[in-house]
Amino acid sequence: MANGLVYFGDWSGPVFALDAATGAQRWQGDGANQYAAPAVANGTIYDVSKIDNGAVVALDAATGAQRWQVPVGTNCCSMPAVSNGVVYVGAFDDTVHALDATTGAFRWGVAIGHDLFTTPAVVNGMVYLGSYDQYVYALDAATGAQRWRFHTGDRVVSAPTVANGVVYVAST
Fold first, then answer.
1. I need a labelling partner for 124 at 20 to 30 A (CA). Which of 25, 87, 133, 141 fits?
2. 79 near 47, Cβ under 8 Å?
3. What is the pLDDT of residue 112?
């Protein structure tokens, strides 16, 4: 929710904006057949695709008009995280993708292990995320360079939370 609107996607593709107070539909835009909720930042909705030629899509938050769409070549299944003008998203190809939030231009992509279902947490220049390969990863937000990884003993299924310098995750 942002600016009095609730944004959500539909399995079949559309992204909807509803008035938070009344539930009235404000707009319906072309989304990306998502697994995850869209992210909202700086007047833009960022949506991810569940289809085989996966994509990250940016929509104008006020109108639903598409600003850009970038294919990433595989299903995206994590909710995007947006920080300092960059969109971070994990995908089924074991890759974390970093895209320019304004243009969709590719910044970096790092293959780290196994399917990435969790939403990245971006804190103090680091991207933290968990994987089905039983690891939590810390990547440099600017370059994607791995700073560390931690073996949890089981698949990481929740988005990391970072507070007071500690990273919290759940694994199953």
1. 133
2. no
3. 84
The Cβ of residue 101 has, within 10 Å, a number of other Cβ atoms equal to 24
**The residue type at 74:** T
CA distances from 96 to 1, 4, 8, 28 (A): 25, 31, 23, 28
Torsion of Cα atoms, 25 then 31 then 37 then 43, to 10°: -70
Question: What are 24's two structure tokens?
Answer: 């009235």
Helices (DSSP H) in 73-146: which residue ranges? none
Q: Are 152 and 130 in contact (CB under 8 A)?
A: yes
**Of 80, 9, 84, 85, nearest to 46 (Cα)?**
80
Rounded CA-CA distance 86/8 in Å is 21
Calculate the CA 150 to chain-centre distance: 21
